Amino acid sequence: MPLGERAGDKSDSRYCGVETEFNEDMPLALSSNLSSGFDFLLCPLVNGSQLSALSIESLAQSALLPFAGSDLVLTPSQWSSHVVGKVSSWIDLDSDDELLRLDSETTLKQEIAWASHLSLQACLLPRPPGPSCANYARCVNQLLQGLNNMQLWLRVPLDKSDEDAMDGLSNHVNDTWEWWNSFRLLCEHHSQLSIALDVLSSLPSGNSLGRWFGEPIRAAIIHTNSFLTNARGYPCLSKRHQKLMDGFFNHSVQWTSQMREVFGDELHLQLCCVGIARNPLRPYLDYVGYLYQRMDPLSEQERFEIGYRDFLQAPLQPLMDNLEAQTYETFEKDTMKYSQYQRAVSKALFDRVPDEKASTITTVLMVVGAGRGPLVRASLQAAEATGRKLKVYAVEKNPNAIVTLHSLVKLEGWEKVVTIVSCDMRRWDAPEKADILVSELLGSFGDNELSPECLDGAQRFLKPDGISIPSSYTSFIQPVTASKLYKDVKSHKDIVHFETAYVVKLHSVARLCPSQPVFTFTHPDHSTKKSNQRYRKLRFEIPSDTGSVMVHGFAGYFDATLYKDVHLGIEPSTATPNMFSWFAIFFPLRTPICVPPGSPLELQFWRCCGSTKVWYEWCVTSPCQSSIHNPGGRSYWVGL
Amino acid sequence: MPLGERAGDKSDSRYCGVETEFNEDMPLALSSNLSSGFDFLLCPLVNGSQLSALSIESLAQSALLPFAGSDLVLTPSQWSSHVVGKVSSWIDLDSDDELLRLDSETTLKQEIAWASHLSLQACLLPRPPGPSCANYARCVNQLLQGLNNMQLWLRVPLDKSDEDAMDGLSNHVNDTWEWWNSFRLLCEHHSQLSIALDVLSSLPSGNSLGRWFGEPIRAAIIHTNSFLTNARGYPCLSKRHQKLMDGFFNHSVQWTSQMREVFGDELHLQLCCVGIARNPLRPYLDYVGYLYQRMDPLSEQERFEIGYRDFLQAPLQPLMDNLEAQTYETFEKDTMKYSQYQRAVSKALFDRVPDEKASTITTVLMVVGAGRGPLVRASLQAAEATGRKLKVYAVEKNPNAIVTLHSLVKLEGWEKVVTIVSCDMRRWDAPEKADILVSELLGSFGDNELSPECLDGAQRFLKPDGISIPSSYTSFIQPVTASKLYKDVKSHKDIVHFETAYVVKLHSVARLCPSQPVFTFTHPDHSTKKSNQRYRKLRFEIPSDTGSVMVHGFAGYFDATLYKDVHLGIEPSTATPNMFSWFAIFFPLRTPICVPPGSPLELQFWRCCGSTKVWYEWCVTSPCQSSIHNPGGRSYWVGL
Predict the structure, then answer these.
(1) Mind listing the pLDDT tens digit for each residue in B321-331?
(2) Closest CB to B134 among A141, A182, A604
(3) pLDDT tens across A253-294, in order?
(4) Is A625 in Cβ contact with B186 (below 8 Å)?
(5) In angstroms, what separates the C-alpha of B632 from chain A's closest C-alpha?
(6) Gap between the Cα atoms of B462 and B284, Å rounded
(7) Rounded Cα distance, A122 and A155, in Å
(8) Domains of chain A
(9) CA-to-CA distance for A6 and A605, rounded, in angstroms?
(10) Strand, helix or coil at A176?
């Protein structure tokens, strides 16, 4: 029985299970828990006392002795919908005792095989003994090579605490994220390996917690002793725990939208009832349900974006390709963007034409890249609002958009004010010079759709004191943990996809430190020796309480100054609200880079220009050296 | 004119050039140097005063101004055989001065384009400014993407010295190997990027020098001021320099045998004559020629192996496949191996049969895997030498070898002593039990051709107190720098080749520390619970004076105890001399791992057994985590 309703949210973060011991009477255990409001059982599939080496050997030899109940005790759909298997927790594949190691390997393989036979959606693997778990990882990695659709959830305690060393002098940080990181690196980021996070009563710092949201967490296991008791004797969670739960609820949503069909890909909450009777868990379930239901409903923008979360898209090539009607349609709906443009044009008109000359001076405004006309409309609205007289040239290279533009002008009766020019702005021979040049040529990374090159071409017909809107723009970048994006890029099994930038609505991503500015372009630019090539070395300091982090790539944004104090942008700390025209851009790394605490992360970034194309190259040079991505624009470029 | 003759050596390490300044009269400069005994010129292609930003701009605009002499001053074959180009050394692509950076980029591209136009075999790139040279590397990497066959030699001083820091307190090691390492990582180990090593008057430690022999050194540049003067006033080199020169002479050989057609792939020696007249260099050339000619001629074994140096071969699958006659022929020629076997059998016969019973006791000896009979012969020779009576069973699964075996027995008149059994030893139903079991089933890594599995099967027909020859064997492994092998594996552009072990005559390889034992098998093994699975964690400490190193993979060897003190093996420190049946084995790493000084290198190694195959898995877990290579034997395995 789901936790409740939240508008727009159909995710499985609403499901809640119970962790139990092995139960001889599975049907009874299941029905009593389902009737108490839980959705699934997390339980051992095998009567869990340790099988001795001898019994395993005899088992292997006889190949007859049953080691678990029959698969007939539940129906196939009960097994797959309501049971998550739990591998015997005594196994220790990294023990110094060779016999125990070999027994553990046999048991692990046997239990996973049995779970596959039952078509379970997921199996919980016991927590690793620590960061040294190569033999455990090797064995799991072998199983992953031949597994059906089942997910393996590695149980990891959520912990980052100082541990006193034996000598009592030094102390050592026990960071369980590093256990996970070792394990998944050994298993090459396998897509069926994910995390069941054991939430303990004390939580690490916020920065440290943040890392996990870039990782494939599928379940959170909350022990009853992590709860507090409120004044009325009911269980509740600390504020920090509540915030973490909100995070889990939010992050499951993405998995739903991406992989609705796979149960194991959803985030589950589980209550752990080790050692206490089952009914007493009901108040805990009610409390978790209350937390879920009290969350804000999804906003309109969130609902629009939900289907795009963590979905990689190739950036547009608006210069080489003509946009389709559908694309214009979508972008034109972004009212926030055009109202910012209208404000900027208004301010420019006020500056250009004093009140006393409002009726005599006609300002020449050219919209370069007019598309189907939204900036023409915004400019005319600005003229009306400020009482200034305007002459508009609408320059557009896409002949299909020109058709619509003509019909718009006719419909609105703008024939006397607006001149439509069907031409590439870089080649247009303008009949007069402009006071104001308005354009919307920015990509997610600012200059990545070649706004600099286009405006360089258009600048010819701007008056020496003319204004460009936007007047400048800057790209920003920050390192992120994004295991989902990394796996998606890696699934193509080539270098090209690792050397491509993607437009993506970032969601299951950990932003590891504040973004930094990369390249700035200013318009108009009258300097004699100008080049649109750029080179920038960036040095990121990740907050020291975060712990080690894994960098899968870099998230890019832009911020543009339209005119004076009117800006437009998607850089997270200054983003224009309620704007949906741009998602972030993602630059992947071919080999993810692990940054230890206190180490700076050095990124080098180039914007390169050739005669027919523009491209970026990037590399990491600290704490270790990556290769240079995309040399010569071999994998990804934007055509001129 | 080559330096002289050395038996068996046809390499270009015999060629010696002169580094000069730009010369207006190229034909004269070339002819006067060739007549002095040199083979080529290393010289600038452009009159090297720095072009100002302005002149470059005007150049680009006019596209007419000549910046170098005509290509007609030399013939095409003179350009390509006798000239190595030298890029202007003033360029600084990592300067803080943006203008200088941009000028440098233009100049570098222009000069490389000119050198390509002249079809030069190689161009020398100026030394990087230090370990931070990302923009230089980015620019070179772009050039490498579209280069013809020309090699680019990066000039690197051979230096690893302590440098006092600004503050006078700390000091910092200036290790130029790290400059090279940064550069080539940024350029992804590009195969056309190699090293011209500037040999200075003082040399780093032996361990530190050793690293360079795993790198693509194509030229060594020796300054005249690195020479000493002997009693008679002639130039000579220090003992340590002489040893280094021997190393260079030896290492060029490999490149010759592999890539004879490409001049740029050879090692050249160059004398630097900056600032002094030309004729005075002749005594230096004579001295270098003397060093070359006094080297020992290549041994017979070296001449046999020369064609196999650094050439990767798939290991044999002798159990699944039948060996061909040619393979038997080659291995049977290894007299050293069989004389060791004969010694071992002799000792076993002495132990088994006291002198007084020599004429009454007949020892039953079974050769399992008899092939075409070399071990039968060695055993009979041992019997004769010791005066013991022998009954031999020669068991062989390859029906083709059986044919030859029958003819051998007939030819030698061994019919009464030798019984031939055409059968797989694992399935043979022996008529009696053996005193001695002799086999040669070892691969380069000991157990990698499944000797353990075969002998487990054959052990049934060994008497309880019987002897197995070999009685045990151990595999050994050590980390290596091997950029040539890494590039060859990488050229396949798939994972399979990175998860395969190769048999290879290691040559251009730096062995970074002593090898360590991995797995040991002992025969006979009468323990009840035995398994041929193995797991080993190894920790290598690289000598701290080495500096940082790059580990491209691991070299594997074996050592076998045939009987008591008679051993056989290829582990470098204990290798049996004059034996050529085995080359080393090489386990690559998908991502080479850089180990900083003082960091241990942890390798984990598994031998895994399935019902139809045996395979290895391996991973590095310190200083960083690799993926587990070859999970489930997906890429490389040996069939049972």
Answers:
(1) 888 888 899 89
(2) A604
(3) 222 222 222 223 334 555 544 444 445 788 888 888 888 888
(4) yes
(5) 5
(6) 68
(7) 12
(8) 12-298 (3.20.20.150), 325-440 (3.40.50.150), 474-639 (2.70.160.11)
(9) 43
(10) helix
